[in-house]
């Protein structure tokens, strides 16, 4: 009989403990506020363009240019943060972004569509990279891997709220006042939220890891096969999301229920939030790579009921399932990216992850628009995107695993708590 008492189980992680940790509530709240323009600006730009006499097509193009410019600039801004720190990038970017959004209704209408496009593209390029920056801050703010795991899940799960609250807030402001006011509020929220993060001590103190010697320099390449395959797989996740948004519009038109165009994406986002809250409450066994593959398989399975062309209520309930899996997929993708990225390039790697999903979302939107008149093909496209993501991950699983060649020597940041099971 052993006289040694069994080890006490680890205390259960609560979101109160996460939010009560120093700076977490400030960083999370500031990031969500600063990223609200991601959900507000495209809608506000579209409403301003149509209110100024432009066609919906022109307004849609300006809106798309803002989103595309913002996505394409992510890796550049991520690399700048890795070289110069976060505050040096966040604050100038937020100031320029807010200035251009406010200037759009003041001078855009007088300079024609060319000047409006230039302002919109400039604003998108200057959008502060708050999402990638926050992910880079978590290891220094929350050294405990379990708290960091919960924070990442909470952070990822709440992202969907941006695309529910943002458009609703713009619609309310434009209705009560005008689209110019909506743009001004968008700019103000972006500036306030970014300043809240950038002026916080963790952001001001943050510096990326550096190589200690020149012999390690060749390892600094970001475009290793494992990272490339991971990013390619995530484009499939983006395709599914983009296709779902267009499919919801098709459902609204088919059933003549305009609200479906907003309700279905809202159900997807609500599922994402719920999935993140559930996933973050416990520490999971196994590697992040395994969880990434399993959650992607579940994400694919969640889309399959759409192939039966369900009625509106059933369709709304069905999309909550892949929504719940999405948070787990993205959270595990960030952990895997963190393990693959070389020292000094972590934020840039996170930015490429964001770009990959965004590029896939744009492709999914375009493909779904082309297939909108074919109900079965339109409903199948989200599953096709998820199947592509799963196929690439399965093909790459040996490279992505902790024993795969691309990751040798990668577990070398004990002070930042790089644990595969977090």
Rounded to the nearest angstrom, the distance between the terminal CA atoms is 34 Å
Derived from helix and strand composition plus strand pairing, the structural class reads: mainly alpha
The low-confidence runs, each spanning 5 or more residues with pLDDT under 50, are 1-9, 211-219, 403-422
Strand content: under 5%
Radius of gyration: 22 Å
- Judging by the overall fold, what is the CATH architecture of the largest domain? Up-down Bundle
Strand segment tally = 0
Q: How much helix, percentage-wise, in residues?
A: over 70%
- CATH classification, class level of the largest domain: Mainly Alpha
Largest sheet: none
* Total tally of structural domains: 2
Give the overall pLDDT as a whole number. 84
Number of helices: 17
């Amino acid at each position: 009989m052993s006289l040694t008492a069994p080890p006490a189980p680890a205390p259960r992680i609560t979101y109160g403990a996460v939010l009560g940790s120093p700076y977490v509530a400030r960083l999370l709240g500031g990031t969500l506020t600063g990223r609200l323009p991601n959900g507000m600006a495209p809608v506000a730009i579209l409403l301003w363009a149509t209110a100024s006499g432009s066609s919906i097509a022109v307004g849609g193009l300006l809106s798309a240019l803002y989103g595309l410019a913002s996505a394409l600039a992510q890796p550049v801004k991520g690399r700048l943060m890795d070289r110069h720190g976060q505050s040096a990038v966040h604050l100038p970017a937020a100031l320029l972004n807010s200035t251009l959004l406010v200037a759009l209704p003041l001078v855009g209408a007088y300079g024609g569509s060319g000047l409006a496009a230039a302002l919109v593209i400039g604003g998108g390029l200057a959008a502060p990279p708050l999402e990638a920056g926050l992910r880079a801050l978590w290891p220094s703010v929350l050294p405990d891997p379990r708290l960091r795991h919960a924070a990442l899940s909470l952070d990822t799960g709440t992202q969907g709220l941006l695309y529910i609250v943002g458009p609703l807030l713009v619609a309310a402001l434009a209705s009560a006042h005008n689209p110019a006011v909506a743009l001004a509020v968008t700019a103000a929220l972006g500036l306030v939220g970014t300043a809240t993060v950038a002026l916080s001590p963790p952001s001001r103190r943050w510096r990326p890891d550096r190589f200690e010697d020149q012999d390690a320099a060749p390892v600094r390449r970001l475009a290793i096969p494992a990272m490339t395959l991971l990013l390619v797989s995530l484009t499939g996740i983006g395709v599914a999301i983009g296709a779902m948004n267009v499919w919801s519009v098709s459902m609204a038109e088919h059933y003549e229920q305009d609200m479906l165009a907003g309700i279905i994406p809202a159900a997807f986002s609500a599922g994402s939030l719920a999935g993140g809250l559930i996933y973050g409450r416990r520490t999971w066994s196994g590697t992040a790579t395994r969880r990434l593959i399993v959650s992607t398989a579940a994400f694919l399975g969640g889309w399959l009921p759409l192939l039966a062309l369900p009625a509106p209520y059933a369709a709304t309930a069905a999309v909550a399932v892949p929504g719940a899996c999405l948070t787990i997929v993205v959270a595990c993708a960030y952990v895997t990216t963190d393990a693959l990225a070389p020292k000094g390039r972590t934020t840039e790697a996170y930015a490429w992850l964001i770009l990959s999903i965004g590029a896939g979302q744009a492709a999914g939107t375009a493909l779904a628009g082309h297939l909108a008149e074919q109900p079965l093909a339109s409903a199948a496209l989200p599953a096709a995107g998820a199947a592509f993501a799963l196929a690439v991950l399965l093909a790459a699983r040996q490279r992505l695993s902790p024993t795969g060649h691309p990751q040798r020597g990668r577990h070398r940041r004990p002070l930042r708590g790089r644990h595969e099971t977090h």
